[in-house]
Design goal:
By secondary structure, the protein is α+β, with helices and mostly antiparallel strands. Helices cover 25% and strands 40% of the residues. It has 2 domains: 86 residues, SH3 type barrels (Roll), CATH 2.30.30.100; 78 residues, SH3 type barrels (Roll). The protein has a 10-stranded antiparallel sheet with strand order 5-1-2-3-4-10-6-7-8-9. A hairpin with a 2-residue loop joins strand 3 and strand 4. The longest helix has 13 residues. The N and C termini lie far apart (43 Å). The mean pLDDT is 93.
Length: 179
């Protein structure tokens, strides 16, 4: 990961985008502007078709490749000329560990999406609000696709979490129209 650290730090300082690959976790690349990095986690502003669509926190250990080349430089120009970086307001969170991150998120009462992409069996995706942050897991009040909160609170182990998304259109609108 040391070879990517310099690229990430530069992109954080200058608000430039990268393409992140996590081959062992997901086939889809993540196009994003890195915001903050710790030894364990990376917080990025996610880009989808030149639009900023919330944030993602991912494990550094899952990153297999980071690209910063002509494509990313060209896309930076588009985003800059469209004035999208001017509206960017990074969230106030800690990413020293999953526990630190979720402690900050519970105060915000935000809807989050949690991915457990490396699990071989069982549920690998959750959407909901954090109800409690414990030493090795969090308790999540799940919401279904109809905006209904489920009665049972689920426990999600930090060690299984590979990616968390928040502030994206899906979560924000689902939260707005939830029951």
């Amino acid at each position: 990961m040391a070879e990517y650290e310099k690229i990430l730090k530069s992109c954080i300082d200058y608000k430039k985008q990268v393409t992140i690959e996590r081959d062992e976790v997901d086939d889809e690349e993540i196009t994003a502007i890195p915001i903050m990095m710790s030894r364990q986690l990376l917080l990025v502003h996610y880009l989808y078709d030149f639009y900023m669509d919330g944030y993602k926190v991912l494990r550094i250990s899952d990153i297999t490749k980071i690209e910063r080349g002509e494509v990313e430089e060209f896309h930076d120009k588009i985003i800059d000329r469209e004035g999208m970086l001017n509206v960017s307001c990074p969230p106030k969170v800690s990413i020293l560990s999953w526990k630190d991150f979720f402690c900050a998120m519970i105060k915000e009462n935000r809807m989050i999406d949690i991915s457990l992409e490396k699990l071989q069996s069982g549920k690998t995706f959750f959407v909901g609000k954090i109800k409690a942050v414990k030493e090795n897991f969090l308790e999540l009040q799940e919401i279904d696709v109809l905006g209904n909160y489920k009665h049972k609170v689920v426990k999600v182990l930090y060690k299984d979490i590979t990616l968390v998304s928040f502030g994206n259109r899906y979560s924000v609108l689902l939260d707005k129209y939830s029951h």
